[in-house]
Design goal:
With 222 residues, the protein is mainly β. The protein is 7% helix and 41% strand. This is Pentapeptide repeat-containing protein. Residues 1-28 are annotated as: Disordered.
Length: 222
């Protein structure tokens, strides 16, 4: 029987044009930002809901409690963003590179991520409930208690990254590759792994959780 191959995710190919420095006084709701570089801007608590970022670079910006609900981030690079409680709920990220992020409690529930690379850094309590991820790669990063509840993941790869306490409750997976995850710890929703591919070693590690989910008691024979 022919071996079924898992389709790899399509990575973003971001080629930024020559950028102009951002000279505004902060974000504005429904703002339109095109070809700009935000360098070490303090965007704490600012309201950029519904804003559009096209061909932009955000480098070393503070995003604590920044309101970016319904924002559209397209063909852009975010390098070393930091902050707690950044609100990107129901936003769209397409052809985006997120590098060395240090975020906590980032809200991306209901968001759409397509051709996104998350490389390096650490994100605590990432909320991706009911989000749609397609062609997304998590690489060399640490995700602490990420919540994928009710989300749909298609062609998503976890490469040399750590997942701690992941919640997969109600998730739908298609062509999701977990084999190269450095650590795979699923707190809830292990029964939703249909559509994912894991390694033999990961299967052994998950065996106790799978047995508990199926109501199987594992005891040594007399």
């Amino acid at each position: 029987m022919a071996r079924r191959l898992t389709k790899g995710a399509r990575r973003p190919e971001v080629r930024l044009p020559s950028l102009e420095p951002f000279r505004g006084r902060g974000l504005e709701p429904d703002g339109d930002y095109d070809g700009l570089e935000f360098r070490e801007e303090d965007l704490t608590g600012q309201d950029g809901s519904g804003a559009r970022f096209m061909d932009c670079a955000l480098r070393g910006c503070a995003l604590d409690e920044a309101g970016l609900r319904h924002a559209r981030i397209l063909d852009s690079v975010l390098t070393a963003p930091r902050g707690v409680g950044t609100d990107l709920a129901e936003s769209t990220l397409r052809d985006v590179e997120l590098v060395d992020a240090r975020l906590g409690g980032a809200q991306l529930h209901g968001a759409v991520l397509e051709r996104v690379l998350v490389r390096g850094g650490k994100i605590d309590y990432l909320n991706l409930r009911k989000a749609r991820l397609r062609d997304v790669v998590f690489e060399n990063c640490v995700l602490v208690e990420p919540d994928f509840g009710g989300a749909r993941l298609e062609r998503v790869e976890f490469v040399d990254c750590v997942l701690k306490g992941a919640d997969l409750t109600g998730v739908t997976l298609a062509e999701v590759d977990l084999r190269r995850a450095a650590e795979l710890d699923i707190a809830r929703g292990v029964d939703r792994l249909s559509g994912a591919v894991i390694s033999p070693g990961q299967l052994l590690d998950l065996a106790p959780v799978l047995a508990a989910q199926l109501g199987i008691r594992v005891e040594a024979g007399e």
